[in-house]
Amino acid sequence: MAFMALLEIVHYPDPVLLTVGRPVAAGEFDAELERLAEDMFETMSAAGGVGLAAPQVGVSRRLFVMDTPNADGSHERHAIVNPEIIRVEGEQTGDEGCLSFPGLFQVVKREMRVIIGGNDVRGERIELDLEGLAARCALHETDHCDGIVFLDRMSALKRELAKRKIKRLQKTGKWG
Q1: Is the pTM of this model over 0.85?
Q2: Given this model, what pLDDT does residue 1 score?
Q3: Is the terminal CB of the chain with fewer CB neighbours within 10 Å at N or C?
Q4: CB of 51 within 8 A of CB of 80?
């Protein structure tokens, strides 16, 4: 097995989190991209997350990895390059966290099902039909690729309360 490196997770309000990621061009599907995805899986796992987008490790690219459990004990493990939401339906509301917002969890409304397209790390076209937690994760990570953070999905009041909590954490040195 190849050596994998843990990457540094950047925290809000780092500008890379608020910038639309650059698409991966046809000639960029190479060993370096595969290595980045594997390092992202390792970093996500070590941090206890279920999804991680390239902007969260300081790389402004349209790429994310996810590893979400299914009810039957199997896992949805994917690396998606240049993600695009094809269709959404339904609704779910639940607690959502983010590795770039350590210790902050908020109730966020998302669609229950998503059909997402993109490429795998070798450049092959993929299309996934995801539901529940996997859908929530894919939508959250695609938002990161689009420069959207989960604060943007909250009501104005919840967003203000979350920003106050972040400021308190920053003052006590408990924020990145």
Answers
A1: yes
A2: 47
A3: N
A4: no
Superfamily of domain 15-171: Peptide deformylase (3.90.45.10)
pLDDT of residue 173: 84
| Amino acid of residue 36 | L
Residue extents of the structural domains in the chain: 15-171
Instruction: Write the single-letter amino acid at 20.
Output: V
Q: Give me the helices (H) in 14-131, please.
A: 31-47
Q: What is d(CA 25, CA 140) in angstroms, rounded to the nearest whole number?
A: 23
Query: Is residue 29 helix, strand or coil?
Result: coil
| Residue ranges in the chain whose pLDDT is less than 50 | 1
The residue with tokens 């695609």 is 142
Task: Please say if 84 is a catalytic residue.
Answer: no
Check 96, 111, 141, 160 and give the catalytic one.
141
Rounded alpha-carbon distances, angstroms, from residue 148 to 129, 139, 144: 22, 11, 5
Closest Cα partner for 76 from 123, 29, 34, 116?
A: 116
Q: Which residue has the tokens 């106050």?
A: 164
